[in-house]
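User: Hey, quick favor. My workstation is busy. Could you predict this chain's structure for me?
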Amino acid sequence: MTGSAERALLAARLAARPVRLGDTMRRPRHDRSAYVDELLRQLAGAGFAGVPRPLGYDERGRQILTFIEGEVPAGEGPHRLSDARIRSATELIRAFHDATAATPLREDQEIVCHGDLGPHNTVFDGERAIAIIDFEDDVGPGRRVDDFAQAVWGFVDLTDAGVAVADQARRTRLMCDTYGGVTPAAVVEALTARFHRARDHHRAAGLRGAEQVFDDLLTWMSRFGTRIARG
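Assistant: No problem, here it is.
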């Protein structure tokens, strides 16, 4: 590969990644960008402060959003978040869902789902969750339980062999009690259905490695799902 080709490839890769510029974030445009912009505008208009604000697009066509200062727990392995952080994040998720339920963007569904809720997309100030970020092409109308179950999967390290099942069950119950109206059994049911859909999708696409990941998750659920459902 020539030097110019390498530079072009690097530039393309960088353009596909979110970057911070001053007090803004620049994100590549995706299929749901216009929908996300409208959602964030409507949430701002309703007084919900727990998401970035849209500021248009730059000369490269990237979405411009306000940057929210704080800590985003990231990296591989269990996050081992404190109960206080998990409780605060759950309260923020409930407030986000309630706010989206009041927008016409939910169409005929309960809410607008973020689609990838978890510690990696949550900004904390100390023990307090202050914002949900990274609205990508999974954003759209859906059910509370599906979006919430995704959050439980991430926040309590559900299915992680490095975390005691009893602790996963306790924290699942903590999130359900904090959110209100959702049981651990409903979370297990929603996640199991999600894993089946993902497994079947990857199988149809011939992606054996990804298929195996979800086969393993389903095996875990068959072994421990009943324990999690009891809370």
